[in-house]
């Protein structure tokens, strides 16, 4: 079974993650996914045989809408999601994130993710209105299954990378991880 199929199966077996995808799907966003810890932590938990799984401390909903890049729309979308569930939502239109990061304008959600600090964090999942799940991963998913944390040389300074590793306490939570800076 390939890694994307494993991710989809694990999410389908996780009622909380599946409900989150269904909630976001109902918003009809352009070029969207739920990414970062939503997928990364699930894979690392499974590889480390954690039971129960690490709680969802935030759900990173990302989408791409260059016609409406304002942050106020993100807040409105978060309010709509909060009305559907009590999950900890964070919504960000990637059409403006290049400004925060000092990059050229992004062309899609996948393009924006290709600038994230770690390769393993740049994995997301979306759900079509017909229930088809798709993995979005500009760097693929293989590294995620190798118990690694790999610095994206395109995006980050090594100090930013190490700060994130320490602040998020990844090595304490998942002790088999190896760092590739």
Reconstruct the topology from this structure.
Elements: H1 3-12, H2 15-25, E1 33-35, H3 37-47, E2 59-63, H4 71-84, E3 89-93, H5 97-101, H6 109-113, E4 124-127, E5 133-136, E6 148-150, H7 158-167, H8 170-173, E7 178-180
Parallel strand pairs: 2-3, 6-7
Antiparallel strand pairs: 1-2, 1-4, 4-5
Textual characterization of the structure:
- The chain has helices at residues 3-12, 15-25, 37-47, 71-84, 97-101, 109-113, 158-167, 170-173; strands spanning 33-35, 59-63, 89-93, 124-127, 133-136, 148-150, 178-180.
- It is 39% helix and 15% strand.
- It has one domain: Beta Polymerase, domain 2, CATH 3.30.460.
- The longest helix is centred in the middle third of the chain and has 14 residues, at 71-84.
- It has 181 residues and is an alpha/beta fold.
- It has a five-stranded mixed β-sheet. It has a two-stranded parallel sheet with strand order 6-7.
- The protein is globular and about 40 Å long.
- Helix 4 (71-84) links the parallel strand 2 and strand 3 (89-93).
- It contains eight helices and seven strands; from the N terminus they run H-H-E-H-E-H-E-H-H-E-E-E-H-H-E.
Outline of this structure?
By secondary structure, this protein is of the alpha/beta class. It is built from eight helices and seven strands, in the order H-H-E-H-E-H-E-H-H-E-E-E-H-H-E.
Biggest sheet features: 5 strands, mixed
Number of domains: 1
- The name CATH uses for the topology is Beta Polymerase, domain 2
Helix % is 25-40%
Oligomer: single chain
Question: Could you tell me the number of beta strands?
Answer: 7
Helix-strand sequence: HHEHEHEHHEEEHHE
CATH class: Alpha Beta
The radius of gyration is 16 Å
